[in-house]
Specification:
mainly beta; 3-stranded antiparallel beta sheet; binds zinc ion; single chain
């Protein structure tokens, strides 16, 4: 069971559709791909906590 939460994805800032697991250049525009953390997704926790925390 290899979870993908600890995986770095490289994408093009101009073309979010371009994704790969290694640094390189965008095949569409030739820009250097930037690394994004797959663990920084916003769907990690819910902000709608109606409970009384503290
Ligand atoms: Zn691009």
């Amino acid at each position: 069971m290899n979870n993908e939460s600890n995986k770095t994805i490289y994408t093009c800032p101009m073309h979010p559709d371009v994704k790969q697991d290694a640094p390189g250049r965008c095949p569409k525009c030739g820009m250097n791909l930037v690394a994004v953390d797959a663990g920084t997704t916003e769907s990690g926790h819910a902000h709608k906590s109606s409970g009384g925390c503290c």
